[in-house]
From TrEMBL:
Belongs to the zinc-containing alcohol dehydrogenase family. Quinone oxidoreductase subfamily. The lineage of its organism: Bacteria, Pseudomonadati, Pseudomonadota, Gammaproteobacteria, Chromatiales. Residues 12-323 form the Enoyl reductase (ER) domain. Keywords: NADP, Oxidoreductase. GO terms for cellular component: cytosol. Its EC number is 1.6.5.5. It catalyses: 2 a quinone + NADPH + H(+) = 2 a 1,4-benzosemiquinone + NADP(+). This is NADPH:quinone reductase.
Length: 325
């Protein structure tokens, strides 16, 4: 059968995204065919597009989506046609009207969660989960620093961290985003162009610094993030919005009082069905309790994915964004 999908045939800017008609085979053993109803937009999509995270060309894009099961392949008994499901994972091909995907990685969507919320929130929500619950487990009373606090992951992580009892210091790029960050869990908000970000953080923490920094910006913020940490603090580097972090000497950690640095990847934490479903249970529980709200603030037609990428990279978006087939 034929469907439509975004494809890239070369790495580059948003202009390399093409909306094409492609052939889709019947689902194979262990697979299901999903008709997408909402597709999540994430910064990792831009890394695949530019080649920062290389993919074999030609390639699709997109790592999360929600939709309806249309058909299942041989041996599939965990889901059935008509089920509402959401997924995150590889290969990157969520920017499509329909696709086949491993049935045992499809997660049922709770009744109280819309398809848009599921698609906008799963990858980002699970990212917030592994940041706050695994990379540096936040404890009641901790102070943490969160870059891009009004963005997709930041807006969820700030709410969840506050729910866990942390004092959340957010970093944003505009006054509009500062206001949004305050409504989404940040106790304090700093501007990304502050001339002494570590000094401002220490002033807010009585001179001590924060227990952990969650940094998705990368090159431009790395050393400021290290300088904002308390002794034995943890630097969690999980993105490269400004480019990859340059090589550095481990001595930089020693002279800042025995710091730790980690560069985690979500899929190392959800590599089995059991771990995936356990993580999703925690995510949907905190959403269901009302402690974390998924805000879908931008919607684009799938055919306009290139414009969505431009706006994301220009920091014009807030909260979560979905592409609609």
């Amino acid at each position: 059968m034929k469907t439509r999908a975004i494809r890239i045939h070369e790495h580059g800017g948003p202009e390399v995204l093409r909306f094409e008609t492609v052939e889709l085979a019947e689902p194979g053993p262990g697979e299901a065919r999903i008709r997408h109803t909402a597709i999540g937009l994430n910064f990792i999509d831009t890394y695949h597009r530019t080649g920062l995270y290389p993919v074999e060309l030609p390639s699709g894009l997109g790592s999360e989506a929600a939709g309806i099961v249309e058909a299942v392949g041989a041996g599939v008994d965990s889901i059935a046609p008509g089920d509402r499901v959401v997924y995150t994972g590889r290969p990157a091909d969520a920017y499509s009207e329909q696709r086949n995907f491993a049935a045992d990685r499809l997660v049922p969507i709770p009744d109280a969660v819309s398809d848009e919320q599921a698609a906008a929130g799963l990858l980002k929500g699970l990212t917030a989960w592994y940041l706050l619950k695994r990379s540096y487990p936040v404890r009641d009373g901790d102070a943490i620093l969160l870059h891009a606090a009004a963005g997709g992951v930041g807006s969820l992580a700030s709410q969840w961290a506050r729910h866990l009892g942390a004092t959340v210091i957010g970093v944003v790029s505009t006054e509009q985003k500062a206001g949004l960050a305050r409504t989404q869990g940040c106790h304090h908000v700093l501007m990304s162009d502050h001339d002494d970000l570590p000094g401002a953080v220490r002033e807010l923490t009585g001179g001590e610094g924060v227990a952990a920094v969650y940094d998705s910006v990368g090159r431009d913020t790395f050393f400021d993030s290290l300088d904002a940490l308390r002794p034995h603090g943890v630097m969690v580097s999980f993105g490269n919005a400004s480019g990859p972090v340059d090589p550095f000497s481990p001595a930089e950690l020693a002279k800042r009082h025995s710091l730790y640095v980690t560069r985690p990847i979500l899929f190392d934490f959800i590599d089995t069905r059991e771990r995936l479903f356990a993580a999703c249970d925690e995510w949907f529980e905190v959403v269901g309790s009302g402690a974390v709200k998924i805000c879908v603030n931008q919607r684009y037609p799938l055919a306009e994915a290139a414009q969505a990428h431009r706006d994301l990279e220009a920091r014009k978006t807030t909260g979560s964004t979905v592409l609609l087939p």
